[in-house]
Amino acid sequence: MTPGPARSARARRKALAAMEAETGLVHRKWWIPYLFLAPGLLMVALFSLWPFVNTVVLSLTDAQILRGGTFVGFDNYTRAFADPDFWTAAGNSVLYLVVVVPCLVLLPLALAVLVRAKVPGIGFFRSAFYTPVIASAVVVGLIWQWVLRSDGLVNTVFLRLSIVSEPIPFLTDSAMLLVSAMIVTVWKGLGYYMVFYLAALGNVSPSLHEAAALDGAGPVRRFFSITVPQVKPMMLLVGTLSAISALRVFTEIYILGGESGGPGGGARTLPFLIRQVGLGFSGETGYASALSILLFLLTLVFSLLGRRLSKGDER
Amino acid sequence: MTRSNATRTAVATLVAGTFLSVSACGLGGSGAADVREGRKTGEVLGEITFRTLQLKPKFTAYVQGVIDAFEKKYPGAKVRWEDVPGDGYNEKLVADAQAGALPDVVNLSTDSFQLLGDRGLLADVAGLDPEVAKEYVPGAWEQFKLPGKGQGVYAYPWYVTPEILTYNRELFEKSGLDPAQPPTTVEQFFDYADKIAAASGGRYSAFMADPKGRLPGDWQKMGVPILNGTQDRFVFDTPKAVEWVERMKDLYAKGAMPKESLLKSDDINQLYGGGKLVFGPGSPGFVKDIKQNAPQIYAGTRVAGAVTGKLGHIGIYAQSLGIKKDTKHLDAATEFAKWVTNGPNQVEFSKNATIYPSNAQGLADPRFADRGDGTDAETVARAVGAQQLATAALDANTPVQWTNQVGDAVVREMQKAIQGEQDPKTAVHKAQEAANQLLAKSART
Amino acid sequence: MRAAPRARLGLAARYASLVLMLVVMLGPIAWQFLTSIRGRTENVYDGVLPERPTLDNYVLVAESFPLLQYVGNTLIVAVLAVTSNMLFAAMGGYALSRAGWKGRTSVFTVLVATLMFPFESVMISMFLTVREMGLVDTLIGVWLPGAVSVLNIMVMRSAFLAVPREVEESAVLDGAGEWTRFTRLFLPAAKGALAVVCITSFIGAWDDFLWPLLVLTDSDHYTLQLGLKTLAGATTTNDQRIIAAGAMAALLPMMLLFFALQRFFFKGVGEGAVKI
Q1: ipTM of the assembly?
Q2: pTM confidence score
């Protein structure tokens, strides 16, 4: 992306010509966009970049909570790579992302299409579907525990109907616990991303649908051939945002799997590990910072992958 | 040209910022070295801040009354009261400590006391005023010494909440147990649970597995040594500890505990209040909760002394008031902390809340001996709690070295063993290894 | 004539799926509402339906702490956050959506990257910065770090990307300057996205707990979420009915706002200058 220093004059002219072609008739001074971005950039510099630099520096030290550290080079990183807990957690985080992101890109879109129709009472449904977003984590945890416990709603029904002979260990087996947490994440995300899609669907012309319907296209075909292409930029955004939040999952694991993070800590994600390491009396700020940086790098890798994928898709 | 200058400035700012932030964020050390100790002047003057843990709005009148009386006694002193909710209390303390802006007088739980005390941010109150020790219950006073810090005491004991045993009388009887004979040892507790599991048919459980809350207390009660003589190595890898795991594993398989309670136990009130659990949480505050939320279950709730096993007594966990080491108004701060924790003020407090005074004079108040007619659980709980506090001693407490991280590490191994994925012997062994590794790490200074 | 029964069937299917989703999505709130109206003498842990419904718990909530004051404080932060986010995120998103300036990709990359910083690791530094600025224990300090969130900039950018260049060009030919184009052409075209920004920033400010807790010390300045936490406490009694009533009271304004705004999602087409 960054051109080398020895870029030839011809290449520069070519680039300028390309930029001209890209912008067409719209000319603007180079600083105008920065003026527009100034408030955003200022906030980001103060409250994200600056603290981030701090985290990077701390990750190279053996600082503990409220106790200064000394420079230890990359010790924290080598320690992480040698720590089986780190690999389990990183694996869980990646697994989480791989499962949750496709669900959160597609299901809220389907939901948005469902509540888009102008039928009586639809405003109520739209608002109701948004409530999981604003429900408190504690209540969400209690409800889902009640549904998923070994003597909970699902297991009781399944046992009654003889679908299973033993209760499914939704909450007491590490792998199942991850699946249960994913269900909660998707459930919470449905309403949240539905709103994004509703905004995007506002721009999809209904006449396209009518025309396609006249051509005999069923609702499913219309969904994939008309709706999906129209909201593609929003799908990309939702994909990015849900990927980032999937890699940050802590609360769902905590409210379902307790403070150990599943039996034997087997369902811990990276953010979970970071908290466990960094907080409390023996909180290791240095090591936790290194884990944060690794989490950041992991997120970066996935968002680059995502961009590559979506670009390949467009061609 | 302009832009490359701008770039250079930006880089320079960033570099300078890094150094600034490094010193701000504790690399330079926010430890004892740079804390300028406050000094006594003999005059109680100045404005101090006082931070409490979640006392508003319920105890606003009480606390304000204590403050007003203090300000009346010392007209030169002024107290600014901040009350902070329990969730996030420690995070806020750490952030304030990081910024060098702790309140002058601050309510500390065991965790936050250890952290701030160990980092040299609290004043040694015994050094300031040795006489004051005899005002408090000895165990409570001793609790605020720190390993490796000699005879210093780093906080004034405030209120105490003792451990008790609560159980559902009806379910007790249904399981063929005598409610008048509650268990007194861990082994007996397990025997009872065995009977309950056999009789319940899966309709109710005996107790919450909650290994995090149960350890190391259960081991101590079974006579398992936790630390070696010099307090620098964990030595709990013993046949007794293995026996504990084996029994837990067996009872877990038999359904004596809710399956999910191995991981989390925050639904204990729901389960007990819904009549699905025989043994409830072991605190007097819980009895009051149940009275409010499940009056019918409350009516059938019995209270007894906690299971103490070989120890024969409970531990003592006092909330405390720490004094910021570099406070500007040391006299006002210490006088105020002593004022809040004195006998009359603590007794008055206990009339409003389910807490117990750590003050010797306060605990002697007749209201703590009154059992009523022996049927009202709340009244009995108060008497039982106070009675146990009279003999409470620190050897039943969780050792300071058993930090939250150590607890987590041990519990992870226990969970695997109780679920049957790991042999109990291996589990205890691995747990001790992990615990010792963590201990060695935190000993580094 | 064949279409009518078919349409009716479609409508029935739609309502059936809506109701099914309603049951799944509304569970926690419904349960909390039911708890909040349970009578004083009931066992709140037993069963689901209240036996002696009452509104007393709401009265108790209002009496036990300065509800209106806390709501007022929260509204100040929320209104500030909504205003600044709608304006600044739209401006930022606009700049990022328009091609033809140097550094666009780099700025975009940096902004997306900051979305990935874990909050816990930057929290203490943020606090120290706000402290340095002298904003501790002020509502401005609560608002400032969220004054314009990168997420909202991204939302606006993606909405503006949908505005075709031809439309912008014709505005240029009409002699419209940059700011005019932004306010007259682009903003109306992105009403739905603006509504999203409004809702997310309002809810962000309304729901935030840990950050206001760090910044605020005087309980007179507390926001609603901080106030609600004082309803459940270690030394106070945990009355589930009161806690639930408090949570419901906090939820209601958000629901109303959402209900009022959801119609805006659909006004992008036809109203704005842009037709796609």
Answers
A1: 0.84
A2: 0.86
